[in-house]
């Protein structure tokens, strides 16, 4: 009996990470307008209010990220061919807010990030990373990418 319980636990443990880990790719809104989804979540959908050019979100608009129909994160700003490129504001699910420039879905250029604790990272961002005087941070990429 114990062997069956352990076998079930091992199978479930192997299955859960595979289910949670999804490959990056395109996600489309109800009209078929696509946005790049670098970190997909199960049950995720989007609502895009801007223009759609050749099947991709393009130009200025508002983007809502939903999980199981509930608001998760928002972005208001510019997209180019479905990618965050230009100026915009991302409000993250943890309460962090980044306002500034983006290039290919990453904070890049002048910008300000306020983390959920109220700490402010203001200055020039490069490829999703902030390397200020005595301060380092990230808003759109894992911290390990900035070390």
Descriptive account of the structure:
The chain is mainly β and 147 residues long. It has one domain (24-146): Histone H3 K4-specific methyltransferase SET7/9 N-terminal domain (Single Sheet). 13% of the residues lie in helices and 52% in strands. It has one helix at 2-20; strands at 25-28, 34-37, 44-48, 52-53, 56-57, 59-67, 70-80, 83-91, 97-103, 106-114, 120-126, 129-132, 135-138. The chain has a 9-stranded antiparallel β-sheet, with no helix packed on it. The chain has a two-stranded antiparallel ribbon with strand order 1-2. A two-stranded antiparallel ribbon has the order 4-5. The longest helix is centred in the N-terminal third of the chain and has 19 residues, at 2-20. It is globular, with a radius of gyration of 18 Å. The model is unreliable at 1-20 (pLDDT under 50).
Structure at a glance:
The protein has 147 residues and is mainly beta. The protein contains one helix and 13 strands.
């Amino acid at each position: 009996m114990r062997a069956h319980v352990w076998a079930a636990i091992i199978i479930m443990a192997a299955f859960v990470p595979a289910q949670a880990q999804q490959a990056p790719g395109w996600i489309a809104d109800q009209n078929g307008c696509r946005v790049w989804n670098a970190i997909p979540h199960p049950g995720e959908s989007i609502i895009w209010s801007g223009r759609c050019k050749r099947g991709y979100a393009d130009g200025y608009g508002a983007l809502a990220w939903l999980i199981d129909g509930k608001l998760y994160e928002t972005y208001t700003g510019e997209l180019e061919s479905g990618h965050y490129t230009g100026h915009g504001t991302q409000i993250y699910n943890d309460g962090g807010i980044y306002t500034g420039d983006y290039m290919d879905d990453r904070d890049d250029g002048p910008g300000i990030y306020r983390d959920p604790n109220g700490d402010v990272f203001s200055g020039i961002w490069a490829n999703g990373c902030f390397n200020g005087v005595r301060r380092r941070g990230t808003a759109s990429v894992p911290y390990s990418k900035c070390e």
